[in-house]
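Checked the freezer inventory, then went back to the computational side. Two predictions to log before the end of the day. The first one is the construct we discussed on Monday; recording sequence and tokens without edits.
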Amino acid sequence: MSTPSVPSARTYSYLGPRGTFTEAALAQVEEAVGQEWRSVNNVGEALDDVVTGRSAAAMIAIENSIEGGVSVAQDALSTMPGLRIIGEYLVHVDFVLVVRPGMRLEDVKVVNAHPVAYAQCRGWLDRTLPGHAHVPASSNVQAAASLLENDLADAAVAPPGIVDHHALEIVARGIIDNPNAVTRFVLVSTSRELPRPTGADKTSLVAELPVDRAGALLELLEQFSTRGVNMSLLESRPIGDELGRYRFIIDADGHIFDERVADALLGVRRFSPSVVFLGSYPRADGARVAFDPRYSDDVFIDARDWLRAIVSGEPTVPLDVP
């Protein structure tokens, strides 16, 4: 009697080591529970895992409520082909200052911290440790771990749970400048299957301007405004081939299956020489998308039926616009 085969575990990549906010975001993914989690050193490695098939998906930070977009993640999603965002997750951010056992707060001269974390705690650090120096780290946990590996820094900015994983001492808590800080993470895969619309969705894309001239950006924005589509994120990133050339990272409220969003994307595709669709997925906050009834699905469908009737010589009826 043959033994039934056991399906192999799916692998998910995240910015490690253990204890990072990225790991906390991945813990929110139901389908990732009980699967293999692969700790990586940077965003590029996480996404390369997905592209090459080493991982089914990767969790990466994409935006912070204080610092805005995470440029390294935005650039990677813009340039690495075949990637899709399939979900987003929010993590409340807080930090502590940790030291080696026996070190006092007043003795700290050099602080190791991830650049984003450092920026979020800069005010507290400047007030409490005036004249301190900053050593950048690749992750929040790596900043703390490095204290036990070398003496380049006296302290590190780290997540509150860091002492559960490393023999360090907390000398200050709640050092973040804004206690309401939240980081937005996205789960990225190569799946082409779109999540079904929920009414509380977001669509992400990248678009380039066709030319660098007055009004070009306005024309891009009009592709959304004239369809009643709100943009919750608009950030520019240099393309890199020459000065003055930019691509725009866009988050639009709604799903590509929504007529107004689909029509806006068609407008962007006609307007821009390069458009990258990054996905439509449920919003992490669950907030339903509000829009003017003039841009409901029925209005777009009626307009197409009206045009089709004209072309085919059928009688037409006036559009019933709310």
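The second is the one RB wanted added to the comparison set:
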Amino acid sequence: MTRFTPEELQAARDRVVPDVVADGLRVLFCGINPGLMTAATGHHFARPGNRFWPVLHRSGFTPRLLKPSEQGELPSYGLGITNVVARPTARADELTPEEYREGGRLLALKVARLRPRWLAVVGVTAYRAAFGEPKAQVGEQRRTIGDTRVWVLPNPSGLNAHWTAETMAQEFARLRAVAETS
């Protein structure tokens, strides 16, 4: 893994991290927003302590553990990645309520265009803020975007101590089981 100086990470605040998407995906995973390591590398969930890639594999979504630099393989598994908010930050709490709401609006347009079977938002707090659903919980949501169903997953950040890698993988696996049959 490349080591970045603090200055290089700060310079990444201006970078755009491209989505990994295709039409008609089985599941489009949606992070909160790119962290500075993700922005610096151009690879989603790139911070070493982030559990997204290990959990994705443990839950059965991928046949092997992918590195962030292998994110381009996701569409071959019917998977993709985007974010609620495109602006990179060091911490998600740097985002404003307006950014979340606008991000939710733009995400809904993206989902309507790409038509994945499932939108999986990784982070219940981000989902609540983006879609004005203050009581939403992890799991399947009543909301749909066109024909796309919505599932909220726990945030895979290493800072999320409420979920272990194992319990997170179990929740991801619940979505995988439903997504394989729908």
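For RB: The chain has one domain: 19-181. Helices lie at 6-11, 36-41, 52-58, 97-114, 124-131, 165-181. Let me know if you want it refolded.
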